[in-house]
C-alpha cells in the first residue's frame, strides 16, 4: 500500500527517561535535525513509555510478574509464559529488570493504546504533524527461536490489513489473509532501534497512505489480540496435560471454546466403546460393566479427554458419566 521505499530513521539523543517526563517533548528535541513529517510512523519502545508513566516497581520480579498476570500459559524451568491483563502472551508478563535501578523492575504501560493516542495527540499539538504511533515490546515466537518486536499499542493506524474478499493475481479468493501491519512496523523499527544502543524510538517514512487522519486513531493494537475462545495454543503442551489431569477449572480458559457436541460424543464414545447420547445441556456416556479398577481408569480417561475439548463432568453414577460444556467463551469449533 505504501507504493514505494520505506526509510527507517533511528531517534538518537534521548537520555534517561523518568516518571513525569514529557515524552513528546523529548522526542521532538531529539528529532530537531530530522523533524517529523505528516505521514510518518513513530515507533517507540514500551520501556520509555512505562518509565515516563511511572511504572517502575520496587519489588522482586516474581511478585510483580504475578501481579501483572491474568493467566499462566506455560512454565518450563525458570521461564513463565503468561497472558497479561492486556491479553498479551509474553514471557514474564513483559516485566523488565534491565536498564532500571538495582532492586526495581519495569511493568508494561497500563493501557498501551491509550499511551499511543496521548503521544500522537501531543505531537500534533507540539509540531502540527499528523503521525501514527506504535508502542512496542519484545516477544518470542512459539514455533521459532529468537525474539522480535511486536505492537502492544497503536494510534493512527489500521493495525490489520484484512484481505478477506479480495483475490490474488491468479483469481484465487483470499479468506484469511490479514497482514499484521502494526507488528511488521514494530519489527522494522527495531532494526534501527536495537536492544543495546539506547535508541528507544525510530521513525518509518514512506507509509503515509496507512496513516489515518488526525483525530482518527484506529482500533489500536488490542485488535491484534486473539480471543481466548479461538486460541489454539492457550496452554503449553506439558501444562495442558497437567491441567487436564488436575481437572483445573481455572485453566479451562486456555483450552478455548467448548468443542461441538457431535465431536465430543465421537471421541468419548470411542474411548468408552459405547454409544453416547445427548441429554439436556450435555452428553450421557454409559459405562460398560467391568471391575471397579478398570471403570475408575476409564472414567479418568473420559474426564481428561473431555477436558481437552472444553467439556467437564457434570454428574456420574455407577454405570454412567454425564458431561457438559464448560463456561468458556462461545465460539465456532470444528
Query: What is the average per-residue confidence, as pLDDT, rounded to a whole number?
Result: 90
- When the domains are counted, the total is 2
What string, H for helix and E for strand, traces the elements in order?
EHEHEHEEEEHEEHEHHEEHEE
* E-strand count: 14
Strand proportion: 15-25%
Tell me the helix content: 25-40%
Question: How would you sum up this structure, described in words?
Answer:
The protein has 334 residues and is of the alpha+beta class. It has two domains: 7-55 and 108-225, CofE-like (60s Ribosomal Protein L30, Chain: A), CATH 3.30.1330; 237-325, no CATH class. Helix content is 27%, strand content 24%. It has eight helices and 14 strands. The chain has helices at 23-30, 46-52, 61-67, 112-127, 181-193, 237-246, 261-272, 292-308; strands spanning 7-11, 41-45, 56-57, 69-76, 79-84, 89-91, 105-106, 132-141, 144-155, 201-205, 277-279, 282-286, 311-317, 320-325. The strands form four sheets. A five-stranded mixed beta sheet has the order 1-10-2-8-9. The protein has a four-stranded antiparallel beta sheet with strand order 11-12-14-13, covered by helices on one side. β11 and β12 (282-286) form a beta hairpin. α6 crosses α8. The radius of gyration is 25 Å and the shape is elongated. The two termini are 35 Å apart. Mean pLDDT is 90; it is low at 328-334.
Amino acid at each position: 500500500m505504501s507504493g514505494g521505499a520505506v526509510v527507517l530513521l533511528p531517534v538518537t539523543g534521548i537520555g534517561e527517561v523518568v516518571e513525569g517526563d514529557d515524552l513528546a517533548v523529548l522526542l521532538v528535541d531529539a528529532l530537531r535535525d530530522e523533524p517529523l513529517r505528516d505521514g510518518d510512523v513513530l515507533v517507540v519502545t514500551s520501556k520509555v513509555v512505562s518509565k515516563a508513566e511511572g511504572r517502575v516497581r520496587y519489588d522482586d520480579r516474581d511478585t510483580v510478574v504475578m501481579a501483572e498476570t491474568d493467566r499462566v500459559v506455560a512454565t518450563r524451568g525458570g521461564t513463565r509464559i503468561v497472558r497479561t491483563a492486556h491479553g498479551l502472551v509474553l514471557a514474564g508478563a513483559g516485566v523488565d529488570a534491565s536498564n532500571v535501578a538495582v532492586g526495581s523492575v519495569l511493568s508494561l504501560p497500563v493501557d498501551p493504546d491509550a499511551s499511543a493516542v496521548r503521544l500522537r495527540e501531543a505531537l500534533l499539538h507540539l509540531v502540527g504533524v499528523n503521525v501514527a504511533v506504535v508502542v512496542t515490546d519484545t516477544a518470542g515466537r512459539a514455533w521459532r527461536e529468537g525474539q522480535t518486536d511486536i505492537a502492544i499499542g497503536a494510534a493512527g493506524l489500521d493495525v490489520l490489513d484484512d484481505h478477506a474478499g479480495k483475490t490474488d493475481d491468479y483469481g484465487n479468493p483470499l479468506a484469511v489473509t490479514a497482514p499484521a501491519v502494526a507488528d511488521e512496523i514494530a519489527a522494522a523499527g527495531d532494526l534501527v532501534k536495537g536492544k543495546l544502543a539506547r535508541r528507544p524510538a525510530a521513525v518509518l517514512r514512506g507509509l503515509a497512505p496507512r496513516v489515518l487522519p488526525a483525530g482518527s486513531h484506529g482500533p489500536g493494537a488490542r485488535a491484534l489480540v486473539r480471543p481466548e475462545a479461538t486460541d489454539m495454543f492457550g496452554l503449553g503442551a506439558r501444562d495442558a496435560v497437567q491441567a487436564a489431569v488436575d481437572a483445573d477449572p481455572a485453566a479451562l480458559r486456555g483450552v478455548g471454546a467448548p468443542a461441538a457436541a457431535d465431536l465430543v460424543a465421537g471421541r468419548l464414545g470411542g474411548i468408552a466403546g459405547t454409544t453416547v447420547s445427548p441429554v439436556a445441556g450435555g452428553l450421557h456416556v454409559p459405562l460398560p460393566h467391568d471391575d471397579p479398577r478398570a471403570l475408575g481408569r476409564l472414567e479418568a480417561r473420559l474426564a481428561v479427554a473431555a477436558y481437552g475439548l472444553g467439556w467437564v463432568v457434570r454428574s456420574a453414577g455407577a454405570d454412567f458419566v454425564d458431561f457438559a460444556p464448560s463456561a468458556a467463551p462461545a465460539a465456532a469449533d470444528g
